Amino acid sequence: MWRSALRTHLRVLRPPSRQYALDVSPTGSLRKKIFFATPSSIFETYREHCPHPDLIHLETLLSVPHSNPDEQSAATSTTEDSWVSIVQQPTLASALDGVNNVLAHHASSGSGTRLRLPTYVVLSVLMKEPTTPAEVFAAYRLAQSQPPRDTTELGPLVMLLSAYWLVKHRMYAPLRGVVLRTLQYKHVLHAYQISLFLRIIGQADTSRELQKMIFILLDVAVKRELDLGVRTYRVLLENPAATSAVAKLVEYHMRSRRYAPNLAHTRAFVRIYGRAGRRTMAARHWRRIRAAEYYGPKAEYAMKRKLQSRMLEDYMRSFKNPKKVNLYIKYLLKRTARAMADSEASQSVPPPTLPRPDGISHRLWLQTLRTAAETTSVPEEELLAKFNAGKDHVGSPQKTLFAYFLVIKGLVRRRKYMEANRLLEDVLPMKDQFDGPKLTMAVEALTLANKPTDAFRLLLEFVRKQESAPSVASEHVQDVTEWKSAVYSPRGPLVDTRAINTFMICLFRARRPDVVFYIWDTMPQVFGVEPDSATFAILLKAARYARKFEGALQVAIADFGMGRILPRAREAELNPQRLGRDEAVAGLEALLASGERRVTGFWRGERAGEVALRVAWQVLVGNWPVLGTFTAPFQAIRRSADGPAASPITDLFHSFAGGSVETQAEMDTARGSARPYDGDGRTFFSIVPDDTAFRALLDLLAAEERAHQVPLVLVWMRYLRVWPSRDTLATALVYWGEVALEGPWVQRVREWRARERGAEDSEYIRGVKWVTKWVGRRNVPRKDETYRALARVRWFRDSQAIGQGE
Length: 806
What we know:
InterPro entries: PPR_rpt, TPR-like_helical_dom_sf. By secondary structure, the protein is mainly alpha-helical.
C-alpha cells in the first residue's frame, strides 16, 4: 500500500515530446482538414497529395452533365465513349450494367484479348454509393480485378474506396481481403494513405474483427515509421471496441514518433487499460491526468468532481481484487480529508479528491460492486449483502438497474441461476430501459435457468420493438466542418449478433445442439442479424458435440450413402433456411418447447459434422477463393488415429477404395465451396474467423476423421494473418502426431526409407519445424500446453464414447 501512496505523491515528469512532427509532411494538412472519412474527402485528399492525370481526368468528366444514349448508339460507340458514359452514370447499378455491356461487347468481338478497365473508370464506380450488399460485393470484385502492377500509384485509392463501402455495410470478410491486398503496397504506402485507412475502419461500428485489422495496419505504420497524426490516434482510441493490444501499439507509435498524449488520448488510455485489467498501465495515465502532465494547456474541466469520478471509475476497473479496491478507497478518503483540512495544499496542488470527504460516490460504489461480482472467490452471501446495503442509496433508476445486472452477472458466474432469476424478475418491469448488454445478460440468465422459451420471447419482443422504432444514426456524417468532442460511432442495435451468440452458447451448454443448428439457419429471418466469428465457432463446437448422439448403425449407413432408408424428416427440418419469418419463429418455438427430447446428432437430414464442415469450407473458401488453391506443406501418413474404432466397416471400405488420404467427397466439397454464397443465396461476409474458430475447426476435423487436413488449416491461418495461441498450436500438433506418427518400429522403417529418398525428417518433424518457422521458437507450445491439449482430447473422446454407449 505504501508503494502505491509513494507513486501517487511522485510528480510525473513531462516527457521531452512534441505534439506535431518536426519534419513537414503531407499529414500536416491531413490532420487539419480531414476529420471523418467519406468517399469525396478521401478522393480530395488523395488528389491533393497525388496529382495523377487519371484523377484530374476523372474530376473533369464528373463535372460534365450526364446524357443517356440509347442502346444502339452505345453499342456502336467507341470504347472511350463507353468509358465516359460509365463514369457519368448517376447510380452504381447503372454503372455496373455499363461495365458488363462493354465487357460483353468486347468478348463477342472475338479479339481474344482481355479488356482491362482504366483505373479512372474503376474509381468512378467506387465513388457511387451502393444500396445493397450485392452491389458492394460487385464493386469490391471489380476493384480486386485491377492488377497491382498497373495501379501502383492509384491502387491504394482503389483499396480505400472499397474499404469504405465494405465497412459501412459490415462486410468484414471481403474487408480482410482488402487489407491483405493493401499489404502488397506496404513498401510504397504514404503516411496519409495509412491514416485514411485507419480512419475509415476506426469510425465504423464497434467490432472486434475490425480491431484485428487495425492492428495489422498499425504494425505497418510502426515498421515503416509513418507519421499518422494525433486525430488518427483519437479515432482509434475512442472506438468503444478498442482493445488493449491496439492501445499498446498506438502508445508505442506515439512514443516512437515523439508525440505526447493530450488529455483526450490519456483519458482513452485509462479507459482501455482499465477495462482490460492492465492496472500498471492504467495507473500511469491516471496519475498523468491528476498531475496535469498531458500535452496542451491545463484543462480546468478535467479537475471537476464529476469527470474525476468518471475517470477514477475507469481506473478502478483494473482492480481484480476487492480487498485492493477497499484499501485504495480508504487511502483516497484519508487523502481527501487531509486535503480539505489543509486549505493551502488544496489551493496550490489540486489533490485527487473524492466527490465527498465523508464517503464514496455512487460510481465508486458501483465499481466496488463490479469487482466483487467479477471475483468468483467472493461468497454469494457477501455479494448480496453488499448489494442490499447500497441499492437503495444509488440514486437514479438507471444506476439501480446497472447495479442489479452487475449482481445478476456475478450470480450467473457462480452458477446460482435461480438466485439470478429472482433478481431478474425485479427488473423485468423496467425492460424498456434495457440496452444491448443488459438484454444479453437477461437472455443468458433465463436460458441457463432452464427458461429458453422466455428468453426467446424476450428477444422477439425487442426485435419487433427495434423494427418499429426509427432507425438509429447509422449513416456516416457527410458534412463535418470541425472536430467534435466524441468520435463518430453509430449506436448498435439492441438485438445484435452478440446477444444471439449468448443465446446459442447457453443452449449448447444445455445439450441442445439441434436448436443451435436451427438458429444458425434462421438467424437472418428471425433476428435480422448475421453470424460472426464467435457464431461460427459455436456452430463447429455444437457439431462436434452432436457426434456423441450418433448411433453406430446410423453412421455406417450414412457413410455408405444409404441415408434414404433412414426415417425421413420433414421439408422444414431439412431446409429451415428457406422458411419465411413466421414459419421460422414457429419452428423455433416448437423446438424450444420440446424439452429434453432425444437429439439424434443429424442436421438437415445428414450427419451434423459433415454439414458443419461443408459450411466451414463455404465460409472460408467462399470468402477467400485463393484458399482453395493452397496445398499442405507436409502430408499425413493416414487419415485418423481413431478411425477404425469409430467405424471399422467404413475404414475397411476406404482401404479397398485406394490409398489416397483425400476422399473424392472431400475434394468435391472443396471445389464446390468456392462461391461466396450457399445454395439459397446466403452469404457469410460478416465472418472473419479468429483463433477460437480455427481451434474449433481443428477439433471437428479430428472428430470427423479428417485430421490429415490440419496442415491445410494452419496454412489458411497464416495467410489470413490469424495469430495462433499456444493452446491452438498444441491442439494442432496433438492431432497431427496422431496421423503422422506410427509405432516405434514402423516409424523407424519410415525414417529409413525417407533417408534413402534424401528426406532427413519425418512428416511430424517437418510439421513441427514449419510451425516453429511461422510463429518463432518462443511461441511454440511448451509442455504445459501440450499436456493440457492431450488431456482435453482424451476427455472429449471418453465422453463421446460414453454418449454413444447410452
